[in-house]
Amino acid sequence: MLCDAHIHAPELAERDPSFPERFRAGAYRACSAAHSGPELDAARALRDSGLDLRLSFGIHPQWTDWTWADCLAEEARAGGIDAIGEAGFDFFGDRPERVRNPENLAAQRAAFEYQLGLAERYGLPLVLHVRRALDLVFEYAPRLKRIPAALFHSWSGPVREAESLLAKAVPAYFSFGAPILNGNRKARESCALLPADRVLLETDAPWQPPRGTDFCTLEHLALVRDEAARLRGIPAGAMEESAAAAFEAVFG
Description:
Mean pLDDT: 97
Low-confidence stretches: none
Shape: globular
Structural class: alpha/beta
CATH architecture: Alpha-Beta Barrel
């Protein structure tokens, strides 16, 4: 079974209206990330229509909007979601709120600590979005050790940093998508060398399209699987099986 560790199912359905029908017809499983109550409701409706979806819900570090914080806490308490996130830090610098300065750091740290606390309290995996902020993640290693899984979505960091997280007993998992298709050297090296039981596959559909495409969709996951298999020197079927086992380990 092809398992997509990170999609935005409602937004993908808007761009690709036949996506739900193709998903139901194929052997697919995915985790759909939401950042608002309406987006979570839309993902839940898709799941209830027959899509094999896990649901994550969180305050994205790119905008740290607290509007749905109480809703997030209630969903976590009631068992309405399978993971928290995307949570994390984004200091890529492409927008004013993503410049690393004291004000932005305080805002993103507050949102991250709130979500990490929920993951600790309710025993939920945490889906991490991290850009130019791995040093901050390492600060939280003692607390990350207390949660079931810390899934680094669209990992493009150095393999040595991933190995260091594992060496600190962080239950870290690393998901790979379009960056390995688009030639990202660090992502490709990490995908090739990290332990098989810690490697997941994703599309981030409809975002992060492979080069030359307008948006990412369901069928791109097979391209990611095939490239990951080539990087690891194993058959595509073996890659699909190990990624499915890692997906199950994170999301159940």
